[in-house]
Write a structure and sequence with these properties.
Blueprint: E1 9-14, E2 19-24, H1 29-32, E3 42-48, E4 54-57, E5 77-80, E6 96-104, E7 113-120, E8 130-135, E9 140-145, E10 151-153, E11 156-158, E12 162-170, E13 180-182, E14 186-189, E15 193-194, E16 196-214, E17 217-233, H2 236-258, H3 262-287, H4 293-303, E18 318-319, E19 331-339, E20 347-349, E21 357-363, E22 366-367, E23 376-378, E24 384-387, E25 398-406
Parallel strand pairs: 1-17
Antiparallel strand pairs: 1-2, 2-5, 3-4, 3-6, 6-7, 8-9, 9-14, 10-11, 12-13, 12-16, 15-18, 16-17, 19-25, 20-24, 21-22, 21-25, 23-24
Helix pairs in contact: 2-3, 3-4
Length: 407
């Protein structure tokens, strides 16, 4: 039989429950390798912090009394669940810990071997990064866990020894869709998706190995990281009305503050400018057959600020793919726009219209129709546009065109 001259223990920092789990790693090898009778083996534990304060100590530690041992052959581990120091971040306090352990191999008559090691707890949770990207063009919503779970502590990298991820996504109330669950880092909903609020809960079970049998000591960490995010997807049909509601309410508040509180009025002016900037982006995306989600989401995030006190309603509705105007086969689309510099503009030039065909024209948020007696006519040779009498453009008014040309 081999001769036993040192002990081997593992400390698991259970961050989920705030426990310290002590394990005697020799276990059944006391018998199979070293020839000791397992029922004769008993162990006592003591754990202290960096200030020599006792976190746990067996009642018989000081007198080598093994009558109530921590470790026996029926259980090679001991969970310390009380007095474990927990910081404000809900993690076991990062500091030095002293682990002491001693065993008897003769039913507690005498101590056979003892163990003492000091280690530093460095563990800190990874910063969670989750993105949500919606596409109204494709009617999809993609959630991605971008978190780097490899920890860099004291210039050392610690890669998880195990990692289990669960996405649990709740669809908008009223969509009647069951929750979507997945273990993948990227989860795609749709096509088709619904407008409304999606609640995403991410849970990741992790294990790390920090010290691997250094002088008989092994240190592991187990943890579960949870993260919740809400993402609103705005259906196109709701959007123009939503912006109009918001602009009316914000403008009224701006005018009110302008009379007696200029700093507050300036804040609202900036909000209105931001909304109009993103609204222009939204219109251009629509006109150029690009996805409108980014601009729409930016506006909705602004309007959702509870401090604004806006009354905004959002209809839950199914979003169908490819809501942008179709592109005819064998042709390309060209965007163009014109801004009137004076009042009562009846004729202006859109160079891109020369040799092209407008498949969509918008005046602000309203669709314009081409033809005599409609909204406008155009000259395919020169690109000149003529507004129908009574529908001239006002100063700074914009018109947008989506034009097709043969490739």
């Amino acid at each position: 039989m081999a001769t036993l001259s040192s002990l081997s223990v593992k400390i698991e920092l259970d961050e989920v429950n705030g426990h310290i789990v002590f394990t005697d790693l020799i276990g059944n090898d006391y018998n199979t390798v070293y020839g000791y009778t397992l029922t004769d083996l008993l162990g006592l534990i003591k754990i202290s912090d960096s200030q020599a304060r006792v976190i746990y100590k067996n009642s018989g530690w000081d007198s080598d009394n093994y009558s109530s041992p921590d470790i026996t052959s029926s259980s090679w581990n001991k969970t310390i669940s009380t007095a474990v120091p927990i910081g404000q971040d809900t993690l076991i306090v990062r500091q030095f810990y002293t682990i002491e352990y001693k065993i008897s191999v003769d039913i507690g008559v005498s101590t056979f071997l003892s163990f003492l090691q000091v280690f530093q707890n460095l563990y800190n949770r990874a910063a969670v990064s989750v993105t949500a990207v919606s596409s109204l063009k494709d009617s999809t919503l993609i959630f991605t866990d971008n978190t780097n779970y490899t920890l860099t502590l004291n210039q050392n990298n610690y890669v998880p020894t195990s990692q289990s991820r669960t996405f649990d996504i709740t669809w908008p109330v009223g969509s009647y869709q069951p929750n979507t669950t997945s273990s993948s880092a990227t989860v795609q909903l749709g096509p088709d998706i619904w407008s409304g609020q999606y609640e995403t809960n991410l849970s990741v079970d992790l294990a790390y190995l920090f010290i691997n049998n250094v002088n008989g000591l092994t240190i592991t960490v187990t943890d579960t990281i949870t993260y919740t995010m809400n993402r609103v997807v705005v259906v196109y049909q709701d959007f123009t009305g939503l912006v109009n509601q918001a602009l009316l309410q914000l403008t009224a508040t701006y005018e009110n503050y302008k009379a007696y509180n200029l700093p507050y009025a300036q804040n609202y002016q900036e909000l209105l400018d931001d909304i109009m900037m993103y609204y222009d982006m939204f219109k251009m995306a629509y006109l150029t057959n690009q996805d409108m989600s980014y601009a729409m989401t930016q506006i909705y995030d602004i309007l959702s600020n509870p401090e604004l006190g806006l009354s905004i309603t959002l209809t839950v509705a199914e979003i169908l793919p490819n809501q942008s105007p179709p592109i005819p086969s064998g042709q390309i689309t060209v965007p163009a726009y014109y801004v009137a510099q004076t009042n009562n503009v009846s004729t202006f030039n859109i160079p891109e219209l020369a040799g092209g065909t407008p498949i969509l024209a918008m005046r602000g948020t309203d669709v314009m129709y081409q033809g005599t007696g409609q909204d406008y006519t155009y000259d395919i040779t020169t690109g000149d546009v003529t507004m129908v009498s009574g529908k001239e453009l006002g100063i700074y008014e914009k018109v947008y065109f989506l034009i097709t040309k043969t490739t």
